[in-house]
Amino acid sequence: MSFDLNFIGILIGAIMASSVPLILAASGELITERSGVLNLGVEGMMIIGAISGFALMVVTDNLFFAVIGSMLSGLILSLIFGLLTQSLLTNHVATGLALTIFGIGMSAMIGKNFVGIPGKEFPLLFLNFKESIPFLGPIFFGHSIILYFAFGLPFLTNYFLKKTKTGLIIRAVGDSPTSASNQGINVTLVRYSCILYGGAMCGLAGAYLSLIYTPQWIENMTGGRGWIALALVVFATWSPIKVLIGALIFGGITILQLHMQAVGLRIPVQLLSALPYIMTIIVLVVISRDSRKIKLNTPTSLGQIFYKEK
Amino acid sequence: MNTKLKVSEISKIYPGCTANDKVSLEFGSGKIYALLGENGAGKSTLVKILSGVVKPDEGEVFLNDESIKLNSPLDAKKNNIGMVFQHFNLFETLSVFENLSIDSEKKDEDLRVLVNDILKKYNFKIDLDIPVLNLSAGQKQKVEIIRCLIRNPKVLIMDEPTSVLTEQETDDLFTSLKQFSKDGILIIYITHKLKEVLSLCDEVAVMRKGKVVSVSNTIDEKIESLANKMVGENLNTIKKKINNLKSSEEILKISNLNFKSDDPYETNLNNLNLSLKKGECLGIAGISGNGQNELFQILSGEIITEGTSIMFRNKEISKLNPRERREYLMAFSPEDRISQAAVPELKIYENVALNNFKSSNFFEKGLVNEKKIKEHSKKILSNFSVNTDNVELKSQFLSGGNLQKLIIGRELITSPELLVCFNPTWGLDVGAINYIHETLIQINEQGKSSILISTDNDELLKLSDRICVIYKGELSKIMNADTVTAEKLGILMGGGSID
Q1: ipTM entry
Q2: Hey, is the C-beta of A170 within 8 angstroms of any chain B C-beta?
Q3: Which residue of A45, A220, A306, B39 could cross-link A74, Cys pair, CB 3.0 to 4.6 Å?
Q4: Inter-chain touch B101–A168, beta carbons under 8 Å
Q5: Which is nearest to B134 in space by CA: B286, B259, B285, B263?
Q6: For chain B, which domains are there?
Q7: CATH classification for the domain delimited by A2-297, as one of 2.30.29, 1.10.3470, 3.40.30, 2.40.10
Q8: B53 to A310: CB separation less than 8 angstroms, yes or no
Q9: Which pTM value belongs to this model?
Q10: Which residues neighbour A98 within 8 Å (Cβ) at sequence distance 6 or greater?
Q11: Band of residue B472 on the pLDDT scale cut at 50, 70, 90
């Protein structure tokens, strides 16, 4: 029995690990969208973060530089998005799509020389607790620092948006940029900051994939996780806590259906593979039914270009 | 504390329009100043300059004889100039308190104490912890005013503050403004309503086409003298329509209209019943946001409601969509000309074609017959005196008045039996308003019916045969127009009851 319990603990630990990139990217994008900016470039920024992190790890042999570098690369990509949408007033949707296409192509090009190179072992914390405590050990211990950060992030984001002045200003800008501007808030600056933060978090999500989750470089290794993160933000109705729940459900069902495939259940593989997407949407739609709350959480100006009167 | 505010030789030129042409004015505290003018006279530009939202091309602003730079709204705040815009600058999804705290340097606890003091002092009743979208327009305005008062303003500018208020709310506002003035705040009151100038203000500056044309004491003025200064010509106002219904034939009958919305921005409608006779104009008054939008959309078929019966010329049409309703000879002129009635990026003739999908003349085998549509459009332009004969012009380049003429013309050229219009003269100049009013009277004289949903009481009293008021989604009883006065409407619009 104790073996079974421990196995479940390991399974939960694996589920948590698989949901980290989604939590990071979605939490970043959530802040961006709360300021009224719709950046569809999440997938592109993630994959650039993944290759930059991996390449820097190979070149410098330093994981710290690799992680910081991946965040910077995500940030730089989002800066391009910011320049285009905030300063040159281009359409958010088209620019974001372009960013994703650019990121995927660029990462494939840089990554050519890094295919097949083995990754470096990322330090995991509290490894001895993981083994000594059954069930709870594999859940709470033996993870990378980034995982602990990712699981704290939605709560921090929630607190930040609800309780701090800066959070209030971001929500105000997302609600009505014109009013905010008339109140003397620098809308462009706020939106730039949120875009850059979102970019850095997407870069970090990418680094988690290429440095920790599957420590190697494979072309297209984000595999659509950026799009899932984007969808999570919307289906979670811009609530950080619901993003966390959604990411866990998605990660959980992904891992479980893999096990089900391995066990050889007589369910078509295609159906099992589709299960995480379907279940995540159903659960989030069900927990976000209150139309009043949706209205209050939705950034009213999402995706709208803001012109300042001169 | 004495405050002197002076604007000197302010000019602001937009492409194709001189909004402010060397405007010079002086104000001193202890008085309430009116800035009077029609839409587009340049009042709003001037106050945007004073509040730092817009930068002037030329000219200076002096506060207590010192030249001040107003490059941003922050500068205006630093100089203690407060501004309440016509379109509220509030964040609808944030709570009242969040709206107030967002630009205050004070700690939340201190701010709450201060706000509660202000609420008590001026007898405002507002729950600080509910989202702004749940407030009435009058309450939202109070939030805006409190936001200014927090900063101990020397100057308070009110831009057309009563356009969304009931008569009672207007009275309350005037009481507050007089109190502020006594407390030493200089008040600049922007309006195009003449009665308000006379009842509230001490001095009045009239603007026309970007220039100040007159400054005087209000005691020396009368409604007529101010009107003539404002318009720059002697007004030939249309007389109130004479009620001479020839027919008693009922053309429209609505029973048990109920509408419940999940959308917190929308208003529920409760058991509306009304009927309309041939050749009659039914006016529906009310403060905006009391269900007019929803009622219009239900009449036009944009919203289909369950359990409602709409009989039009003895046919049940409640399940029909807008296009099908047009085929039964109903016509609609929505409130928002740009986003609901016309597509601004499309050419005039394309906009004309849009609501004539079924006309066999315009479309053959799925192809557009441009020639026919253009001829038809030219006819509309000339019949309804739209100030262009170029049907290729994009609709966005038409002025509001011309666009409204095009929209009404497009509807009327098919000789509908019923026209439903919603604020048809909203934001138009006097000339265009007169034209639209004449047109609406004409269709009644031709034996066609109309429903006029409007927030402009003068318009309603002028054009309607019968009037009712919509308040919080409910209709008052329908009254004969000759028994109705503006005061009665005001009471009903504010939720009161008469007799």
Answers
A1: 0.83
A2: no
A3: A45
A4: yes
A5: B263
A6: 4-231 (3.40.50.300), 237-329+415-499 (3.40.50.300), 344-413 (no CATH)
A7: 1.10.3470
A8: no
A9: 0.73
A10: A41
A11: confident
